[in-house]
Design brief:
The chain starts with a helix and ends with a helix. The chain has seven helices and no strands. The protein has one domain. The longest helix has 29 residues. Helix 2 packs across helix 7 and helix 5 packs antiparallel against helix 7. The chain has 165 residues and is an all-alpha fold. Helix content is 60%, strand content 0%.
Length: 165
């Protein structure tokens, strides 16, 4: 008798989780155009690009890799929430559409947050150990962000001078 109740309860929980998986409280973040170049228009070395795409791109681009376990609620909601927040903060897929001042601000945040180890979040790297960023990778990303910020700022100032502002 207890076995039947337990089995019935487990079945009901699974059915509820399956049904709730079709609910997307933060919008359908899975249904986005993943095409285009990440960080398009930036001057970036292949090594730094690889780090940013592989270790940051799941939350900060439209090229999220959704593991099988991310399909079932309530886990799907947690992942969709994290991806939604990450894309709102910075989306590498939309880099070329950002104004120069927005890129400069984003580059400052990238350098600061990677140096202070705010990014990637500990909970993310605990669940995805291959997404941990080594000290050498952190230094390379921070150096790129500083150099790219200087380049974008110089281009922006050159554009202002050209237009006489």
């Amino acid at each position: 008798m207890v076995g039947k109740i337990t089995t019935g309860f487990a079945g009901a929980v699974f059915a509820a989780a399956l049904g709730l998986s079709f609910v997307h409280p933060w919008g359908d973040v899975r249904n986005v155009d993943a095409g285009g170049e990440l960080l398009g228009g930036s001057e970036i070395s292949p090594g730094v690009r690889q780090v940013l795409e592989q270790k940051c791109g799941d939350c900060h681009s439209n090229r999220t890799h959704w593991p099988v376990y991310s399909r079932l609620a309530p886990g799907s909601w947690v992942m969709e929430h994290d991806v939604s927040d990450g894309r709102q903060a910075l989306n590498f897929s939309r880099w070329q559409k950002m104004r120069a001042d927005q890129q400069i601000e984003a580059l400052s945040r990238i350098a600061a947050e990677i140096r202070s180890e705010e990014m990637p979040p500990t909970a993310y790297t605990m669940m995805h150990p291959t997404r941990h960023i080594s000290d050498a990778e952190k230094q390379a990303v921070a150096a790129w962000a500083r150099a790219e910020r200087r380049r974008v700022r110089a281009a922006m100032e050159g554009q202002k001078e050209k237009s006489g502002q």
